[in-house]
Design a protein that fits this description.
Layout: E1 3-7, E2 10-13, E3 18-25, E4 33-39, E5 46-51, E6 57-59, E7 67-72, E8 77-82, E9 91-98, E10 110-111, E11 115-120
Parallel strand pairs: 2-11
Antiparallel strand pairs: 1-3, 3-8, 4-5, 4-9, 5-6, 7-8, 9-10, 9-11
Length: about 120
């Protein structure tokens, strides 16, 4: 099993940037498809970004061109760089690990605790 710990959330103004980190232990992030998801109050948890074992990245249309997911194998950490943030990006952000190439939250076996991102305006 792999354990995931997220950090980097906070309050940011519209147009600002944040970098979320997902530190793994127990196993290496390079063994998994690593996904980022978010959940706003009253909404379902939705896909944000994904990176495969080969390093291929995929993004939801809502964040494409603004967010970037990356993996640092040396530090066993996955990142989500968020730029040009909008009010609608406000949500709890989660990182997750899956053994399958998928967009579905239910297919991800391991989850971080979540970190709150709040974008003003």
């Amino acid at each position: 099993q792999v354990q995931l710990v997220e950090s980097g959330g906070g309050l940011v103004q519209t147009g600002g940037s944040l970098r979320l980190s997902c530190a793994a232990s127990g196993r290496t992030v390079s063994e998994y498809i690593m996904g980022w998801f978010r959940q706003a109050p009253g909404k379902e948890r939705v896909f944000v970004a994904r990176i495969t074992l080969s390093g291929t990245t995929t993004y939801a249309d809502s964040v494409k061109g603004r967010f970037a997911v990356s993996r640092d194998n040396a530090n066993n950490t996955v990142y989500l760089e968020m730029n040009s943030l909008k009010a609608e990006d406000t949500a709890i952000y989660y990182c997750a690990a899956s053994n399958f190439i998928t967009f579905a939250p239910a297919m991800y076996s391991y989850w971080g605790q979540g970190t709150q991102v709040t974008v003003s305006s």
